């Protein structure tokens, strides 16, 4: 009877607290699995993690003042470079002309909440001025996504 209760306790403990350390360190189904890289990227067991996807769109400010527009977009680009340097932005780029007035995307990294993402978007001069607006969505993607940034910095010839 004592053995039965010991076994029952072990089963309940396993169910309550998950896998043992030995099981967590079990071989991977993936023959290419790189534990060091996986730990560096900080993803889950599927190699994924949460980000915030920002869709930039035309804002309410329809000014035709070219100097103002130019200064706003210069600040927009400087803000992008700053966010990349702070490891908060891993993807940015314009979209082609479309019927939805979508202008570009950002994928934000290392943020804890949508409120934090909204606050970060307010640091962009083109958004603050109303030339751009945005929508934010939670997005689940590859934890390795930021790993492309060092290579990206080696292939451009002219800064935007």
- CATH class category name of the domain at 48-152: Alpha Beta
Taken as a percent bin, the fraction of beta residues is 15-25%
Helical proportion? 25-40%
Low-confidence stretches: 1-23
Summarize the biggest pleated sheet: 4 strands, antiparallel
The tally of strands reads 4
The gross shape turns out to be elongated
Instruction: Trace the largest sheet across and list its strands.
Output: 2-3-1-4
* Relevant CATH superfamily of the domain at 48-152: Dimeric alpha+beta barrel
- Classify the secondary structure makeup into a structural class: alpha+beta
Fill in the CATH topology of the domain at 48-152: Alpha-Beta Plaits
Report the average pLDDT across residues. 86
Rg: 23 Å
How many helices? The count is 7
Order of helices and strands: HHHEHEEHHEH
Q: Distance between the terminal alpha carbons, to the nearest Å?
A: 74 Å
Which CATH-level-2 architecture of the domain at 48-152?
A: 2-Layer Sandwich
Could you walk me through the main structural features you see in this protein, from its secondary elements to its overall organization?
The structure is a single chain. By secondary structure, this protein is an alpha+beta fold. The chain has a domain at 48-152: 2-Layer Sandwich (Alpha-Beta Plaits). It is built from 7 helices and 4 strands, in the order αααβαββααβα. Strands 2-3-1-4 form a 4-stranded antiparallel β-sheet. A hairpin with a 7-residue loop joins strand 2 (89-94) and strand 3 (102-108).
